[in-house]
Amino acid sequence: MEDPWQKAYDFAVTVARKAGEVIRKAGESEIKVSTKSSTVDLVTKTDERVEKIIIGSLKEEFGEGTHCFIGEESVAKGEPCILTHKPTWIIDPVDGTTNFVHGFPFVAVSIAFAVNKQLEFGVIYSCLEDKMYKARNGKGAYCDDELIQVSDVKDINKSIIISEHGTDRSPEKVKKIFSTMQKILCIPVHGLRGSGTAATNMCLVATGAVEAFFEIGIHCWDIAAGAVIVKEAGGVLLDVDGGPFDLMSRRMVSANNEVIARRIIKEIEIFSAERDDDMCEIQLE
Ligand SMILES: O=P(O)(O)OC(CO)CO
Ligand SMILES: [Mg+2]
């Protein structure tokens, strides 16, 4: 049977590579938007420029009317962040903007595609490492055309876990984040890590370099592509309360298997994060 989204998948890989080249060459890491209230969420002109390039290329190829676009910088400017049944691209032009600003060497372009609210494929280009991760629903996950697979570790004591500190600096949330990390570290696990980009963190789960990555406060564009890649590499995705993964909920546990995921979930101190689709007043469909 003909694959209806093959062309879109191939195009996403091409666009992600092109975007990554722009990021690598970009001299512009000047912070354009920085702190607002208690969050520290950096944005640079490169974030905006790269998102324009990605969405512009996709619109030119697939038409503006039939496909929808959720992009980090477009949403920041007031575009809707609602997943409808229409073919929808979910884009983070520069995942790891803080890394980009500081020259910390993990920065990723993340492009996912959903139809009927189901993720069809995800592409993550870790552009400073020059590694292309990609996965299609039901067709496995790849890094630079090599099949990748999650680790087979089931013993939490033999695991490495990734989490991040997030962008919210309100003391009560930071306290919960550190308390969770302390509890997980003292299970004990082999180590805690964090690359500074959710997309790359999920690729590290998918390749088996770590057993799990969890975070509260991330957005759909940080994790949509990674969700497909982790799942296709044999991993699992769950909500931090143990329920089903919800792309718009801003919280997620991705792990090599359910045993590891559920062991971590036991330690997570949950705090509130406004849903991505609650931030938008416009309701589509
Ligand atoms: O750098 P960005 O795109 O803001 O994303 C962060 C999460 O907020 C890292 O994943
Ligand atoms: Mg991001």
From TrEMBL:
InterPro entries found in the cross-reference section: IMPase, Inositol_monoP_metal-BS, Inositol_monoPase_Li-sen, Inositol_monophosphatase-like, Inositol_monophosphatase_CS
PROSITE patterns on file: IMP_1, IMP_2
Subcellular location: Cytoplasm
Gene3D superfamilies referenced in this protein's UniProt entry, alphabetically: 3.40.190.80, Fructose-1,6-Bisphosphatase, subunit A, domain 1
GO biological process, alphabetically ordered: inositol metabolic process; phosphatidylinositol phosphate biosynthetic process; signal transduction
Molecular-function GO terms, alphabetical: inositol monophosphate 1-phosphatase activity; metal ion binding
Pfam families documented for this protein: Inositol_P (PF00459)
Alphabetical UniProt keywords: Cytoplasm, Hydrolase, Lithium, Magnesium, Metal-binding
Signal peptide: none
EC number from the UniProt entry: 3.1.3.25
SUBUNIT field: Homodimer.
Family (UniProt): Belongs to the inositol monophosphatase superfamily.
Protein name as catalogued: Inositol-1-monophosphatase
Organism: Amphiprion ocellaris
